[in-house]
Design goal:
Blueprint: H1 28-60, H2 64-72, H3 74-85, H4 87-101, H5 110-135, H6 137-144, H7 151-161, H8 164-180, H9 185-188, H10 190-209, H11 212-241, H12 270-277, H13 312-336, H14 343-354, H15 356-361, H16 363-377, H17 381-408, H18 410-418, H19 425-438, H20 442-457, H21 464-487, H22 489-511, H23 520-545, H24 551-572, H25 579-596
Helix pairs in contact: 1-10, 1-16, 1-25, 2-7, 2-14, 3-4, 3-8, 3-13, 4-8, 4-13, 4-16, 5-8, 6-7, 7-11, 8-11, 10-11, 13-21, 13-22, 14-19, 16-17, 16-20, 17-20, 17-23, 17-24, 17-25, 18-19, 18-24, 19-22, 20-22, 21-22, 23-24
Length: 603
């Protein structure tokens, strides 16, 4: 990672529950290890997702039945965005991070207060939403895909997938609580569990139940997502409540670079000064009281407590943003419904594969989001700015390299993954063409994912990202309505790329003013250099893949060519602090340190 640095000075708990030293979550080594674990499990979940789509394509192909299921698939897609990836996480991760910062040695635990104030209400709302979705399934299908040939099948599948409104919400809540306390292992396993459940039900019941088996698999997979995280969350809550030992406090946010060049070593970071000024941290100075005066205890539900961090004014803009982002998919399927049978399926397969580089690039933000939230909560905007700028460059480099492979080897990727059984060569050609168009918007998708976290990490709610997404939706809908009759599914994909590009540019422009003061000209210049390197890598990938007949060998040759060309071109473009090499060094340091460290007896 580009600006990962040693931990800041400041008090941290000395030992874990097992007696070993507690790792510091703000250190470069901890972030690198967390990113490596998250990356490995994200890749595992993505591979299982591809295996899920491959199994689905092999069994059902691309036709009216698959179009019916993919309309119902909209429900888990929206639920994942709203309850796991964007909406709920953007609210709860900062709230849990702030609650961890406000912990005292002796008072009421604000984390437990936050859970008590939010979880029961959330459970009731999620259960009601699931019941409403199941009851309104016919109207929802008519709204999403008017004139769909297999309407009854789509209604059945939608009712089966409606359960994910409850299970995804619980999974997102557990994930936010764990990530807010620098616990990343269990949250990173949720998509492994989810896709395993879907694949299992597909293989066992696919022939007998048809595409309804995939909908039942969504319900099973959602329950497995919760089960994968509950043990870790329960252990943390039991330690807090029964033995008095608390989850590891993430500690004050800072950077060792604040103290570089200070030979005395007594310079305190700005974050630590802010924490002490506002009563945070472990070395807390008690409030001034008049002799004989009684200081009232702060109740958990009142404003200023940890539970007050989650309020309607903060939730509303996040919900509008998350729904606006996911509505791009709804617009695509609405526009594709009148097209020939299989168009929705081609869009779905192309989008799933093309977005894999974006998913992998945003794994870094999963780890660093709590760091940004704690930095802004402590008033350390400089730390937050450097973190967001570094994330933009690293994530941009990852997604551009992956996008180069998607553009250069699109036919080979689709043929290797999907072309078998009911999925024929015509489906391969149509899906590959759409995939290449989708890839044009990958960098914009990544920029939105990185930048929006800095907006919603601030203490004051902002409607700017939500307004940006509404503009993005208007562009997508207008361009798609014009392009779909002329170019079919490719025109819809192009409208998607255009709309998200507008949203990314607006967020990038707004990030220069608030909340972190991004250096737009410098970061924008580096991203343009990386984009040029990605275009050159895509050309090299296409040229090498076109000269190999076997699709798997062509994919391997193209991927190697892109991987070799991208760093060379980025270095030639003089990308500052070349992000991929910086990321590679940060991720490999925890693995290579035991090999390079001198033995104790040789020192």
């Amino acid at each position: 990672m580009s600006d990962a640095s040693p931990t800041a000075p400041g008090p941290v708990p000395a030992h874990r529950q097992d007696g070993g030293p507690a790792p510091e979550p703000n250190s470069g080594g901890f972030l690198a290890r967390a990113a490596a674990v998250t990356a490995a499990l994200t890749v595992a979940g993505a591979v299982l997702g591809l295996l899920r789509d491959r199994t689905f394509a092999h069994v059902f192909g691309a036709g009216p039945d698959t179009d019916a299921f993919l309309v119902a698939w909209t429900v888990p897609e929206v639920a994942a965005t709203l309850l796991i990836e964007d909406g709920l996480a953007l609210v709860l991760v900062p709230a849990f991070s702030l609650a961890a910062l406000r912990r005292d040695r002796g008072g009421l635990d604000p984390v437990r207060a936050l859970v008590a104030a939010t979880l029961p209400r959330l459970l009731a709302a999620l259960a009601a939403a699931a019941a409403l979705l199941a009851a309104a399934a016919p109207a929802l299908v008519d709204l999403l895909a008017p004139g769909l040939p297999e309407r009854a099948l789509a209604v059945d599948c939608t009712r089966a997938t409606a359960t994910c409104a409850l299970t995804f919400g619980l999974a997102g809540y557990c994930s936010a609580a764990l990530r807010g306390h620098a616990r990343f292992l269990a949250p990173a396993t949720i998509y492994v569990a989810y896709n395993t459940g879907i694949i299992t039900v597909l293989l066992v019941c696919g022939r007998a139940w048809g595409v309804r088996a995939a909908a039942a698999g969504v319900a099973v997979g959602g329950a497995l997502m919760v089960a994968a995280q509950v043990p870790s969350l329960w252990r943390g809550m039991r330690r807090t409540g029964r033995r008095g030992a608390r989850w590891r406090d993430p500690g004050p946010v800072g950077d060792a670079s604040h103290g570089r060049g200070d030979p005395g070593g007594d310079r305190r970071s700005g974050a630590r000064r802010t924490l002490r000024r506002h009563g945070g941290g472990h070395h807390r100075r008690g409030p001034r009281t008049i002799p004989g005066q009684r200081t009232p205890a702060k109740r958990p539900g009142r404003p200023g407590g940890a539970a007050g961090a989650v309020r309607l004014a903060m939730v509303a803009p996040v919900v509008v943003f998350a729904l606006g982002r996911q509505c791009q998919t709804l617009i695509e399927r609405h526009l594709a419904a009148p097209l020939p049978a299989g168009a929705i399926s081609h869009l779905n397969y192309a989008q799933k594969v093309a977005q894999m580089p974006m998913v992998l690039s945003l794994m870094l933000c999963t780890v660093t989001f709590p760091v940004v939230a704690r930095a802004l909560a402590a008033g350390d905007t400089e730390r937050a700015r450097r973190r967001v700028e570094g994330d933009l460059l690293v994530a941009g480099a990852i997604v551009l390299l992956g996008g180069a492979v998607v553009v250069g080897c699109a036919p080979q990727i689709v043929e290797v993954l999907f072309q078998r059984g009911a999925f024929g060569p015509a489906d391969t050609a149509a899906t590959a063409a759409v995939m290449r168009v989708y890839a044009l918007g990958l960098l914009a998708q990544t920029m939105v994912g990185v930048l929006v976290r800095s907006f919603f990490s601030a203490a004051r709610p902002t409607w700017y990202p939500a307004a940006t997404m509404l503009v993005c939706l208007a562009v997508t809908a207008g361009a798609g309505a014009w392009a779909a009759p002329q170019w079919g599914a490719r025109g819809i994909a192009a409208a998607n790329a255009l709309g998200i590009a507008c949203g990314a540019l607006l967020l990038f422009a707004g990030a220069g003013r608030r909340p972190v003061g991004l250096a737009r000209l410098r970061v924008g210049g580096e991203l343009l250099k990386l984009t040029a390197a990605g275009a050159g890598a895509a050309t090299a990938c296409w040229w090498c893949a076109a000269r190999v007949a076997d699709p798997a060998a062509a994919l391997a040759a193209g991927s190697l060519a892109a991987t070799a060309a991208f760093p060379v071109l980025a270095r030639a473009a003089r990308v500052r602090g070349f992000a991929p090499l910086t990321l590679l060094r940060a991720l490999s340091r925890p693995l290579t340190r035991p090999l390079t460290r001198r033995p104790r007896h040789a020192r």
